[in-house]
Amino acid sequence: xxxxxxxxxxxxxxxxxxxxxxxxxxxxxxxxxxxxxxxxxxxxxxxxxxxxxxxxxxxxxxxxxxxxxxxxxxxxxxxxxxxxxxxxxxxxxxxxxxxxxxxxxxxxxxxxxxxxxxxxxxxxxxxxxxxxxxxxxxxxxxxxxxxxxxxxxxxxxxxxxxxxxxxxxxxxxxxxxxxxxxxxxxxxxxxxxxxxxxxxxxxxxxxxxxxxxxxxxxxxxxxxxxxxxxxxxxxxxxxxxxxxxxxxxxxxxxxxxxxxxxxxxxxxxxxxxxxxxxxxxxxxxxxxxxxxxxxxxxxxxxxxxxxxxxxxxxxxxxxxxxxxxxxxxxxxxxxxxxxxxxxxxxxxxxxxxxxxxxxxxxxxxxxxxxxxxxxxxxxxxxxxxxxxxxxxxxxxxxxxxxxxxxxxxxxxxxxxxxxxxxxxxxxxxxxxxxxxxxxxxxxxxxxxxxxxxxx
Length: 455
Description:
Layout: H1 36-45, E1 64-70, H2 78-88, E2 92-98, H3 103-115, E3 121-124, H4 127-135, H5 149-153, E4 169-173, E5 176-181, H6 182-187, H7 199-209, E6 215-219, H8 226-235, H9 249-265, H10 271-277, H11 281-286, E7 290-296, H12 300-303, E8 315-318, E9 332-333, E10 336-342, H13 349-363, E11 373-374, H14 381-389, H15 398-405, E12 411-412, H16 418-432, H17 438-454
Parallel strand pairs: 1-2, 1-3, 6-7, 9-12
Antiparallel strand pairs: 3-10, 4-10, 4-11, 5-7, 5-8
Helix pairs in contact: 1-2, 7-9, 16-17
């Protein structure tokens, strides 16, 4: 196939009852939506009483400076949040530091946390990263903070507990789904997929939608393992005999399907090509260079920014597909995310806690236009939804948005150590780079899972 040019609930999956990765959701170095600051400054200001007035955490005449680290670009909402707080709290000023939510970016954050000098608050985007920081002693135990996380955030918050304790506040409703170029689907005579579609269905869609200059499917890095994670979350990490479930047949089938899409159908980029070229998959989708995009809610900040990312097609949504139609206990990437922690080494823990509570209870509303919907029951959900869709209502397919983005699905937070995630990635990369066969890949993943969790 000719070489392509690749210039690449809302409550439910928003309220995904219970939908990874960061994902990842905080990944991405893209510019934020231009509406975020304007809409949010007023919204954030309306919540400033929750921050303890103009002397939050500071004694008489005392000036406190806090530093908050997060992965969302400043212009996509965080700076508007910070500005609203700083205006209402002159004695407790907060500075936002943006880090990229990848391995080097997280290492940079962890280094800052250990010094205790320039990282008072920070966002966690996966449970494994938070676990690592708890183990390192850089996440404050919030058990005695007085903030009712279970009451404010609901039962899904408990997925973020470590040793039955909270070391951060899950501040937003997570989402993970497939973005669809509905105009391309219509032209190909394809309906919006049903909620229970499979990877076999997705493969057929991608083949029919692939053409010169257009991929059938692109996947954001944060969503690459969403199906295998949702599968093992339902199956269980281990088998009844205690051995690893990382070599299960459903993983085998899904990996084989994706490999065939890369090298047989050529409907999705080869893994090595996407890895080395750092494809801007969200940009490519919005430019019409892909029909389907597996990604999180963070793409809204670009999809809603018609000035920098102009597009005239309508966007529809589908769930992250299962492996097989009869797959039981499959779970979806999502739930709650953006877990805001206080550094246990911070010299200003009280002030940092006040900011964290204010942020969670509505101060974060400037982030809504970029898809970050507050999880706190203190926030008016309609206000958040209005901010998300303001001025772009006609750019989305209402039916699929109501079913998928506003739907409710069983979700998970993958609870394995980071070294297991890293070891697993090393093995499946060998397979998708054609350096190792699938049977060896699955066997190695299971073996390393067992060895690393035994330590």
